[in-house]
Amino acid sequence: MARALIHMPANARKGEVIEIRALVAHPMESGYRPDAGGKLVPRDILTSFTCRYNGVTVFSAELHPAVSANPYIAFFTVATESGTLEFSWQGDHGFAQTETMPITVSNS
Record's InterPro entries (predicted)? Predict the structure, then answer.
């Protein structure tokens, strides 16, 4: 399982715009690079990232071979209610990583 780092506020006011930053450790091999023997190294990339806030998708991205190793994704969303944000990465060779982070939203 890859290591994921997620930075976001644990608490927010209702209606506040919050920044979420996510990074996952993954080598991201494009499939175009030759190995020492001259054969192409098989492609091994992350193909998608999705963030769901209480089950509703608030951000998603399709990833391609040009994305760097250990991709870093930053985006904003509005704090609407307390709950859980679920972060999912999908990739080649059956790679799947899911992490969750709680958020507490107050009315004031």
Answer: Ig-like_fold, Ig_E-set, SoxZ, SoxZ_dom
Q: Which domain holds residue 75?
A: 4-33+40-106
pLDDT in tens, 9-38: 999 999 999 999 999 999 889 989 999 999
- Return d(Cα 81, Cα 104) in angstroms, integer: 7
**Burial category of 2 from C-beta neighbours within 10 Å (exposed 0-12, middle 13-18, buried 19 and up):** middle
- DSSP letter at 36? T
Whole-prediction pTM: 0.91
CATH number at residue 10: 2.60.40.10
What is the domain count for the chain? 1
Buried b (16+ CB within 10 A) or exposed e, 14-51: eeeebebebebebebbeeeeeeeeeeeeeebbbeebeb
From the list 101, 42, 71, the residue with the least C-alpha distance to 61 is 71
